[in-house]
Write a sequence for this structure.
């Protein structure tokens, strides 16, 4: 029984798994924080672009063509 506990204490396979789980959770949390920071600015920018394009006027050149060619 003592040998079992000594081997269990030396075994690091579970510790590596826990490290990866903690690292993955940290990356997911960082991505969530970045998303929350960026989403507000991106939504505001999209609204500004939408209103600018909605108010834009498109003009057509002579004879219905686009450009000044002959």
């Amino acid at each position: 029984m003592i040998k079992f506990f000594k081997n269990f204490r030396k075994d690091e396979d579970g510790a590596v798994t826990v490290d990866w789980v903690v690292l993955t959770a940290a990356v997911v949390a960082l991505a969530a924080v970045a998303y929350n920071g960026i989403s507000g600015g991106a939504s505001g920018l999209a609204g500004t672009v939408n209103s600018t394009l909605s108010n834009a006027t498109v003009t057509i050149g002579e004879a219905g063509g686009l450009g000044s060619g002959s």
Summary: Residues 13-54 form the longest helix (42 residues). Residues 30 and 39 are 14 Å apart (CA to CA).
